[in-house]
Write a structure and sequence with these properties.
Number of strands: 12
Shape: elongated
Order of helices and strands: HEEHHEEEEEEEEEE
Strand content: 35-45%
Structural class: alpha+beta
Number of helices: 3
Helix content: 10-25%
Number of domains: 1
């Protein structure tokens, strides 16, 4: 079980400190690159307000504290476009098998919180091979995204990850509309 799954549980248990009623939704992206897969998790938060209230009413979250199974499935499908809003993921030069995303939604005190996790299955990475992961926010994307990209199970960054503008990216950076960032990973050398 990866660190990303653990973070998913923590994010759903401990919502953001943002309590204001009128603010732009918040989004965070966590990516962990492994020798045989890439785990991607998107966290999304809307404060209490008309938009989150309409979503909750449409999918019956206000009745008895949660939605029934049928409405919950519909809500999961409906929230994904809001969460992803223009994000595109790529494992450069590879065609991963994408699993069905796992989506969790909570509506607490008027706040709409969601987390989605997906795994891209890949052929195992050879000892001297590299794997490049890229994320792009479309020009139309209105959400700035706090982004974390890091290696797992012996993979480390082997480049200075940069955006299209040539600026260096740390493991954590803000992804803004129209930006593309990538990072290259390889096996950790043991000497």
């Amino acid at each position: 079980m990866s660190i990303v799954v653990g973070l998913l549980a923590l994010c759903l248990l401990f919502p953001s400190a943002a309590q204001a009623h009128d603010f732009e939704p918040e989004r965070q992206l966590l990516v962990q690159v492994f020798p045989d897969r890439v785990d991607i998790m998107v966290e999304y938060l809307e404060a209490p307000g008309e938009r989150s209230a309409m979503f909750s009413a449409q999918y019956l979250f206000g009745l008895g504290g949660g939605a029934d199974e049928a409405f919950e499935e519909l809500a999961k499908r409906a929230i994904l476009p809001r969460m992803l809003d223009g994000l595109k993921f790529e494992v450069v030069g590879e065609q991963p098998r994408t699993n069905e995303p796992e989506v969790k939604i909570r509506h607490v005190d008027g706040r709409l919180m969601a987390a989605a996790m997906v795994t891209y299955d890949l052929p195992p990475l050879g000892e001297d091979e590299r794997r490049t992961f890229a994320v792009h926010a479309a020009d139309r994307s209105f959400l700035t995204t706090r982004t974390f990209i890091y290696g797992g199970e012996g993979l480390t960054r082997v480049d200075e990850p940069t955006g299209e503008d040539g600026a260096a990216a740390a493991e954590f950076f803000g992804l803004h509309r129209g930006q593309r960032w990538q990072a290259v990973f390889g096996q950790e050398k043991i000497e």
